[in-house]
Amino acid sequence: MAINTEKNSYTVVFAVLMVVVVGSLLAFVASGLKPMITENQRFEKQQNILYAMGVNDNEGDSDVSFVPTTEVEEAFSKYITQQLVVNGTEASEKDNAYLIEVQKELVKVKNGEEGELPLLVGEKDGEKYYIIPMYGKGLWDAIWGYISVDNNMVVKGVFFDHAGETPGLGANINQRFFMDDFKGESIMDGNTYEGIAVAKGNNDPLNNDKDDNQVDALAGATITGNGVTAMIKESLKLYKPYLQTLRTN
Amino acid sequence: MALLSKKDANLIKDPLADNNPITIQVLGICSALAITAELKASVVMAISVLFVLGVGNVVISLLRNIIPAKIRIIVQLVVVAALVIIVDQVLKAFAYDLSKTLSVFIGLIITNCIIMGRFEAFALGNGPWKSFLDGIGNALGYGVILVIVGFFRELLGSGTLFGMKVLGDPIAKTGLYSIGYENNGFMIIPPAALIVVGIIIWVQRSRNRALIEEA
């Protein structure tokens, strides 16, 4: 071929063409697939919320399985009875509150601005679950999750996930042996709000002590664990005034 | 192999042993340390790199006569990045669960020096078919080491393989644990990977002394 690839003008033309071609290709792919991706993400949120209230397809003691995508919409409307937005001690109903982007709202409320804090009320076997979304940061990237509590602030279930924690270490926050430890822990210490800490060396690896506001940490994932502690504490703090009104003892 | 000429077959065989990207060229070490605490992650990463390196090498090879030499590295980066993003988007739309498992690897693939290394050293100077074989060969050579390291780290560090408890239950003290065996927590942290890779390099070089560099 008789093109002189050394010329500056050729280099510039090539670069421009490459950017245009690759750019439009990516834009085309992204916008074409967007509706499907958004739908998938919506289903995932529903699955995660249901998981936190113990509605899942888990088999055995190490398996994390959600309600299948095809049934999740139905299950979600069956189990989630109320979708609320919390403001101080008040709560008002809002359709599709679960789709609110918690990350942005938490920041707003922390800065003293108006924000919408979603809280979902679920009902299973006659018991009430108050499900609160959480958002924080781990070692490399964002971590998030849902925690469900009963009227007395005892944890009934949690779900954690992460964007990019280290596989085998921090990434294990979405595994059963970590998440199941939270069940039965209280986010209160007597009458004070305490949260739940992911603690190293609490001498309770089987987590038999449910009154210590602590669960056993993951080896090799100190920063991720601290991130989980902070996430629970910071996210729930904003709900504290409302949660207080729910307590029956 | 009747399918491939001897020369072509060597393109696949060499990187598996005597010219392995990790143990001989010492490329791609970063991801080999980061993600090999579990066997599953190692396998997934190996497959991802296999795909990106195979396709990427072909694309670069097809473009090799029209890429301006001055900006060839940038062109290579754009090709890898575009490829990886497209794969990511397609997975998110059609195989959402799989894309969740892969999420952390996508970024790591782009920065994997083996990929840029093969584009630069091979695809820019050879035809598409040879480049494809070279890509597959190197990705396999990379994958083999990843899987070996992942196997030992997960087995010795957590007592599991693919998440299954193969040595018994460490908490209920069954299987090996009943006679006092303990998991080695050191194996699941990244420095352990360096040691395992080091041992592989040692074994390989003592079996084939021609690989030892002159001091």
Folded structure, characterized:
The complex is a heterodimer of chains A (249) and B (215). Chain A has 249 residues and is an alpha+beta fold. Helices cover 37% and strands 23% of the residues of chain A. Chain A is built from 6 helices and 10 strands; from the N terminus they run ααββαββββαββββαα. In chain A, a hairpin with a 2-residue loop joins strand 1 (80-87) and strand 2. The longest helix of chain A has 45 residues, at 8-52. In chain A, 33% of the residues are buried. Chain B contains 8 helices and 2 strands. In chain B, strands 1-2 form a two-stranded antiparallel ribbon. In chain B, helix 1 runs parallel beside helix 7. The two termini of chain B are 37 Å apart. The mean pLDDT of chain B is 85. Classes of the chains: A alpha+beta (249), B mainly alpha (215). The A-B interface holds A 1, 3, 5-6, 10-11, 14-15, 18-19, 22, 25-26, 29-30, 33, 36-37, 40, 43-44, 62, 69, 163-169, 171, 205-206, 219-220 and B 34-38, 41, 65-71, 74-75, 78, 82, 85-86, 89-90, 92-94, 96, 103-104, 107, 153-154, 158, 163, 171, 185, 188-189.
